[in-house]
Each structure stands twice: as structure tokens, then as C-alpha cells.
Amino acid sequence: MHxxxxxxSHPAQGGGSQHLPSELGLAQLLEQSQSIxxxxxxxxxxxTVELANLIxxxxxxxxxxxxxxxxxxxxxxxxxxxxxxxxxxxxxxxxGEAGTHPSLYFTxxxxxxxxLGAFEVMIESKGGESNLAAATLGRSQFDIVxxxxxxxxxxxxxxxxxxxxVGRGYPKLTQALEEIPTLKGTFDKPKYFRLxxxxxxxxxxxxxxxxxxxxxxxxxxxSSQGSEKTGHKIEINPFxxxxxxxxxxxxxxxxxHYALPNPTQTxxxxxxxxxxxxxxxxxxxxxxxCSERHESYNVMALKQLPDNVIPVELEEIASVGIxxxxxxxxxxxxxxxxxxxxxxxxxxxxxxxxxxxxxxxFLAQLGIETSRIELLYIESLRSSTPTLITEPLSISLGxxxxxxxxxxxxxxxxxxxxxxxxxxxxxVPAHAPYGQVHCDSTKCTSCMSCVAxxxxxxxxxxxxxPSLQFVEQDCVQCGLCEKACPEGAIELEARMNWNQQERESxxxxxxxxAAKCLRCxxxxxxxxxxxxxxxxxxxxxxxxxxxxxxxxxxxEDCRVVDMFESMANDPMxxxxx
Length: 577
Description:
The chain is of the alpha/beta class. It contains 18 helices and 30 strands.
């Protein structure tokens, strides 16, 4: 049996149950409108080719249907009566009340980890912890867990496949009891994300920096693995990943990006959608990003909104980032809205609000209405109609190329030409991946540790002189340089520099005279580094001879020559080396 599951226990992002009845599907609703904008909207959606991977990479879950139900005895026995068709049903009582089920066990503490087909359940025993599945099934894992405890055994906001935390309110017990019997067999799930470690700003040379993606994952699928000795790296557990998209939205370098489809394809789709809407005489387009898995809520929202609101259905609304939002505004969209619910996982709302906060700062600095990018709560439509903007901005860029930051800055710079910013250097939220690096020249020894760890080459050297150069546009404020500096000379400053030429150009943030070799006078190292080494090694047992101290101030070639000349003149000096 093969099936493509998309996390049946995923919290509904439209609010409440996913099964809200709707008389019309989204396509039927759009076809009903006969206004000029309504016809243009339907034509644009129909004529814009949808971009998606036809055969994405997948991971597979194997489930025999062995089910564990956790909670108070009376409740779990009642639930078990409706799951007699499962491979096996084991009950784990947390209140100690006696029951009649033949496979009823008791515990005061329980720890659950894993996913569909591979749940490890550890319970309290006399010797410490014991594996419940090993004791009851003769195998190490359960396939499915129905959790009826008020305090869930697994804390992730977005539950893993096969885990139903009914006790905390979602999903409803009726929905869980409907879905659990279908989870027997082999199930394939897409690998939602791609990770390019060459672009990742998380770690370099044992130093840890950016952790935005880890902090943004509500499913516990991302983690930092390794140590200072072996090096740290981001790992994505594909079995836990639910494709929420907040990691991709948070990633400033596009090291981690959505793959169904990829962000460039999504942005191209948005740009062409707007162009096709205008081609069919549509006016004042407003984009509404919404989740394709919650069609009934999308229909409900669009019924309350005018016909110039164009739905863009995504696997997850958090899968597109700030670059796509500004690309839409730069191609004729009057507003970019996100259909969300107050019942969405708080991490998703936090990440979206954080990114929108940064976007709105940019808009405000340009004197543009901040409401051009904002969340639209589905619940609010029941009592009021949102204020919509009907005038597009005065630019139309067309299709935008480059990586995530290049696409974003292409839009921002084009907007700045039409809407001059109130100040060239402007504040952004402290967490924003835009800003400056300051170097304290009184502390810097030009060791270039910062250059060695910089993931974007925002910090670099020209290779010709002892200077530290910096390109502000490339800096993602990951903090690797600050942590790697042994002298504490580096400091970060989050900000937005609206001067495009200054932001894109390499500027010297530290420079000093080069030390010249004592023998050949060739410049070979920063003078401060030579002074520091001579000062620290003065008096060391290996540098008691002045000649040894002097060699520190020689280039690598002259140092060898001087050493052999000295030994040739006085062979007994070999005993000193």
C-alpha cells in the first residue's frame, strides 16, 4: 500500500478543523465572478503555469498499525473500543485507575520520541526507564500514538506524522479516530527542503553563528549537530519535517530553501501572475498568500473580499520570504496579504510577524504605507472588512533574477529611486540580517580569523596588503566573525543602508602598515602581528637568543636562510633547535 501523506496531525492553519464544509471549491468560486477584475483574476490564474516538482525526493514510513493510547484509564479504554481494527492496541494509563482492557499498563511518567512507524515509548520502572513496546509487542517501537493527556508527551507545536495530541485540543478525537485506521502500510512523504551547506552561516571552523532556522522550526526537525572539535552543522530530520517553511523564510542566505517548488520558481510564478492579470485588464491587484490544504478557509475569506484579491495557494504560506513579497509590490501588486489564523502554531506566527516587521520598517523608511504587507486573520473577516489599498506603487520591474538577497535589494533599490528614503542609514530590528561590521583598529592584529569564517565573503582581504575589507550588502549579521575574533575587535550593527553604491562597494574597515622583512625588506605581514609575537615570545625558552626573536620579523624565505647561515657559522647552535 502506497500513499502520499501530508501529516494528518498537522494543526490547521486556517483555524479550527480542516473539514469546515464549503458549498464551493476555490476554482468554482473564482469562475462565478463576472466583474472585470473577477474575469481577469480567473484568466490570470488559469493562464499562469504552475511550477512544481512532479517527482520530488521522498522519505518512507512503514506502519503495521501497532497503536498506543495514552491517558486516563476510562478515556483510553473508550477510545480503544473504536480502534479494534488496528494491528494491536496497547493502553498506557496515567491516572492509575483499574480497567478491563487486556493490554492495559500503568505509569507515572512517560517519554515519547519518534514518528509514524518508529515511536519509542519509555516509561518509569524499578530499574529506571524501560521500553514499553519491547515489553508488550516484542519489538522496540510503536507505529501510532494517540495521546489523550492534557499535557502532551511530545511538545512540538506541529506534531510528527502518526502522533495525535488530542488532549491538548487539536486534532479532535473524532478526526484522529477517522485517520488512525488509514495508517497501515507504506507511506511516502516529500522532502520539503534543500540544504546547501556551502551557503550556511551556522558554523565555520568550530565557531557557531546563525541559528535562525533552528529557532524557527515548530516541528523540532532542525538541529545543530557536532562540536567545536568536529565542527557544527545544521541537520534536517526528513521524518520530522512537516514542510512548514518558516526555516526558509528565516534563512538570510537561501542555504535552506523550500523545494516544492523552489523560491525562484515561486517568485517567477507571482511575477507572471501579476503580468497576466494586467494583460486581461485587471486593476489594483492584491495578492493573498494562503495554504492550499485549507481550501474551505480560502473560499470563506475570498467571499468577504473584492474581486481584485488574487489567491496564491502555497504548500505553506511561510515558504516564501521577504524577497518575493517585495517582488510582488515591485510588479504592480497593491498589497501582499497572508491568510492566517489565531490558532496557527505560535512559532509560525512569530516568524511571519518578525519578517513582516522588517518589511514594514523598509516601507516606512520609504514613506510607503506599511499595510502593503501584513497578516490577514481569517477570524477578523467575520466581523469586519480589512482596509485594502487600491493604488499600486509607481514601478514595474518585471522578472527579477539573482539569489535571495540580490532579488530583495533589486526591489528595494528600485523602490528607493521612486520613493527616496527619509534617511540613508535607518534602524532595523535587532534580529534582522542586514547591517554593518565595525572593527576596533586598536585591538585588531589582522589575523584574519573573521575572514576565515565569513560565509558570504562580506569580510575579505585583497591579498596584497594587511587590510580588512567589508561589503555591507553581503553581511547577514550571523555573528561568526564577532565570535571568531580572538581580540574582541569585531562588533555588529543591524541597520539598513539605502545608499546602494556604498552598500555594494568594498570598504576598508581596518588597515595598517606592513612589516618589512629585516633581510630583504619585502612586506610580508601586518606590523602589529609581528610586534605582538615578539612581545609575547620575549623571554620564552626557545627564544632566548636575540637572533631567534629577530627571525620573527623576517619573511618565510629569509627566516630559513638566516637559520642555516647561523648554524653554518656556529655548528653548535644546532643544539638550540
